[in-house]
Amino acid sequence: MYCPPPIPPSRVGNGMRPAHSHSTHRRVATLIGLALLCAVAGAFALVQAAHAPAPSPWSTGPRVAAEKPRAQVDARPETPEANRSKRPLPGETVDDPIWLSEYPPFYITDNSCYFLDDYDEACPYTGSTSPDVVYAFSPTQDQVLHVDLCASEYDTKVYIYEDVVTPGAPYACNDDACGSDGYKSRLDYVTFSTGHTYYIVVDGYGGDCGEYTLSINYTWECVWCTETAIHEDEPDCYNGYVDLHNAGCGGDPPVFQSIAPSEEPMIEICGRTGTFITDGYHMRDTDWYEIILTEPREILVEANTNFYGLLMLLDGRDGCEGLQTIDFDSQPMCVVLNVGAELDPGRYWIWIGPSEFDGVFCGTEYQFFLHGHTPGMSALPERQPPPATLSLLPVQPSPCLDEARIRFALAAPAAVTLEILDPAGRVIATPLAARSCTAGMHAVTWRPVAASGAGCSGLYFCRARSAQGNQTRRFVRIE
Hints:
Blueprint: H1 35-50, E1 60-63, H2 80-84, E2 98-99, E3 106-111, E4 133-137, E5 143-148, E6 156-162, E7 172-174, E8 186-192, E9 198-204, E10 211-218, E11 230-231, E12 257-258, E13 266-273, E14 275-278, E15 281-284, E16 287-293, E17 297-305, E18 309-315, E19 324-331, E20 337-343, E21 346-354, E22 364-371, E23 391-392, E24 404-410, E25 414-421, E26 427-437, E27 440-446, E28 458-466, E29 469-477
Parallel strand pairs: 2-4, 11-13, 12-16
Antiparallel strand pairs: 1-15, 3-10, 4-9, 5-8, 5-10, 6-7, 6-9, 13-22, 14-15, 16-21, 17-20, 17-22, 18-19, 18-21, 23-24, 24-27, 25-26, 25-28, 28-29
C-alpha cells in the first residue's frame, strides 16, 4: 500500500512531488544475439513495475525556477547556425517544411535552437530574433483543431500561414495564452480547409529557444454534464490560489466535499480543475470527495476529463495520517478512467485532478459517475443494479480505434435501438435495431471500420432509444 511522503511543517497538507509520480512504461528491445541480456532486462522491468508506488495525491509540485524579467533572454550554449550544422533536417523555411500526415492528432517534441530565425509576426509582440521551425499540413477534409505549445519549456509564439507567407497578415497568430507562467502559446478553433496547405511556425519571444511540444488536436471535449449532475461549485484556480473548498488532506485544515448516498444507482459529479503557481511552487487543483459507507459496498467510479487525468480511490478510515491508495488510473484526455473495489464500512475518498503540475488551464472540466453508493442494505448490491430508466454508460474506449464497447441498462424488458451519429446528426450505423432486451445490463461491440461513413477520425455520438427513454453519449474515433 502507498504511504504519502511526510508533510513539510512550513506547508501543512502539501508535499513535494516525488521524482517518480507515475508508473514508468518500459520498452525492451529484442536483438538477435542478445537474447539473454534482453531477458534479464525484461525481468528487471517486471520487478520494478510490481513495486511501483501509486501516484502522489498532493497538490504541490516542484518549486518554480527563479523568474527572469520578461525582456531578458536566456543565452544559448551555441548559435543556431552551429546547432543546425549538427542535424540538417527539414523545417527551416516554408520551402522545405516538416510535413505532417493527413490525420491528426499530432504531438511533436523537438528543440528550436537547432534552427535559424526566418520569420516573425506581431501577436501582439514583435521584434523576435528567436529561431523558428516550420511544419506543413494539407488536410483531406475540413477540420477545426487546437494548436498549442503549452507544454514547452521556453517563451513561445505560434502562427500559421495559409498557402503562402503573408508577412504582417498571418492566418492565425498567438504569443501568450497558456502554461504556468502564461508565456506559452495556443490557438483555439482553427479551421483547416481541404485544398489548402497550412504552414505552422513554432517561434519564440525575444531570442528565446529550447525544447517545445507542439500539439495539434481536435476541438472535442469529453465532458457533458446532465441536468441531474451534482456540481462542485468551486471557484476556478489562478496563480496564488489557495483551495479552501475540497483540497482534502492537502488543505489546512483538511476539507472534503461529501457525497450523500442516493437511491439512484449512479451519481454524476461535475467539477473544474487546473494548474497554477502559489508561493513559488507549481500547484494543481486536487478535488477530494468523501463517501461514508455503513454497509459493505462494491464502489465503482468512471471519469471523463478534458485533460490528462488522474483518478484515485483512497482509504480514509485512518485519517490523513494513515492515508492509503486502494486503486488508481491515469489516462489522456477523452479516455475513460476507472477505479473500484469492494469496500468495508468506513470513510473513503475519491480523488480527481491533473496527472501533472503544469499545462492544464484553470476551469478545465471533468465529470465522474459513482456507482454503488446507495443507502444501507443487508447485502452487497450487484455490480450494475438496474436503473429506474434506460441508462446509457460512456462509450469505451474513447478515443476508439477498431472497436467501441457500448453498455446500457434497462429497468424492465424493452426493445432498444442503438445508433451512431456523425457531428452533423446523420445516422451512420445502427448496432441494434429495435432488439428486444431483458432487464439489466447489456453490452454491444461496434466496429467502426466496418461502418459506412465512420472511416474518419473525429467526434461521434451514440444514441440509445427505448420506451424507457432516450440517451446520447459522445465519443471520439481515431484511425
